[in-house]
Amino acid sequence: MIIILVVLVIIISLIISLLLIRSFVIDKHFDNTKEKLSGIAKVIASDSDVIRNVEQGVPVKQIQDYSLRVMNNVNVDFVVILNRDLIRLSHPNETMVGKPFSDLNDARRTLSGQGHFSENIGILGKGYRYFAPIFNKQNEIIGIVCVGLTMRTLNHDLMQAQYTIFGGLMLGLFSGVLGAIFLAQKIKTILFGLEPQEIAAQLREKEIIENEVAEGIIAISADKKIMLMNKEAQAKYQLANQDMKAPIGEQVDTSFYNVLFKRVFDDKKKIKDRSFYVNGIEVIATVTPIYVDNEFFGAVATLRDQSEMIHLSNQLSGTKYYINSLRGQTHEFMNKMHVISGLIEMRQYAEVSQYIQQLNHRYQNEVGFLTERIKVPALAGFIMGKINEAREQNIAVLLEESSDVSNVEMQDIVHNVIHILGNFMDNAIDSILQKNQPGRIELKLNYECEGNVFILKVKDNGMGIDSEMQKRIFQHGFSTKGEDRGYGLNLVKTMVDKHQGIIEIDSQPGLGTSIYVELPCILEVTNE
Description:
Number of strands: 16
Shape: rod-shaped
Strand content: 15-25%
Helix content: 40-55%
Mean pLDDT: 78
Low-confidence stretches: none
Number of domains: 3
CATH superfamily of the largest domain: PAS domain
CATH architecture of the largest domain: 2-Layer Sandwich
Largest sheet: 5 strands, antiparallel
CATH class of the largest domain: Alpha Beta
Radius of gyration: 51 Å
Number of helices: 15
CATH topology of the largest domain: Beta-Lactamase
Distance between the termini: 83 Å
């Protein structure tokens, strides 16, 4: 099938070329003929011997011999010299010498002093001729030169030229057919022996399968142009880029590339099952570099909307912090019970009473103060656990008096807040422990009803963060604590971005760090 199509294309192309070349050759041949006839006629008319012989009325035989000699030398069919009375002084047919020209009107036009072309029927048949006037020294017209070719000669020359062209085109056709057969075989080898209709069928099947896959698939070339994008990926791409279309062959959106593909393009390594946040769209993606003949060709990404999975992960992360808080409270409670149990065994009842009063006083100061300002049980319990956990490491956790989360329902964001607060407090504790001296963490939590924004602030006097690290601290996988770390703060940034909130870091190396977060949200206000 491919061979037939290629051969047909070659034949049609050659036929069109033949017609165009033939037309060009005919036009060019007639142009050359005009130039040839006019040039010969003018040369003869300006020849001094011709002028002298015509003007002096020398014997006609001398002019006849001259005309025949010129005619044979320049390959024209006739050279006719006329005197001013339009009587032939020479002619290829000697019997016509001395007789008037066959077309007096045509010849008489030349007596005006201007040469001209003419296509007419004469003694030798239909022909193409040029008339040139003969001037004497006084610039008077004394005769006419007529030089021409018959149509038979012209057609013969054209046929010879066309035979040459036709022969060349036939040779080209033969070479083209051989090349087409070779090329078709080569193409079929490259296409695994498939015919065009089979390829089209498989491409349709491939497109159907790609569009039915639940995951989005997008592939880009090494020059960042889109090679493949199924319907699922198209939907996500348009949603992430405010309904921007993504035609195949166009450059991928810069923000989409920076988030999803840049690291793979830089490192040439596969990224598997990572969470990405692209202009409001959360996806789990696997991005794989593509190599062709060991040369980097681009990358392909499979995307899946994992909002629900991330939400579940957030809940599980919150649960982890609950457990850690409970573990810390349980540990502190057991320590206190051991103290009370020991005092009772030693019969130090007065000391037991005094110790219990101290515990109650501290509970009222800490827990009462906390529960008065934080009336969300899960959040208050978590902060209490963190206070106990930090105290065991000689770190004081202080809740600012201006904190107030006492009259709102936080079911929708409590897991996010706990996750964010837990990450910041864990990092603060780690930073303080690196200084090997007592530390302090200050917390502030507020919900502003007027602005519908939840404010969270964590301040410590730890090691601090330098400016370079501040630029990278929220990058996926970046950590100073070793491998397989650096995901917590990246997820925090994802949560804040999802709420279209802000994170501000103010840190000085050796002095400490202050992190300020705003989470825009609308919470239900209670009457308590």
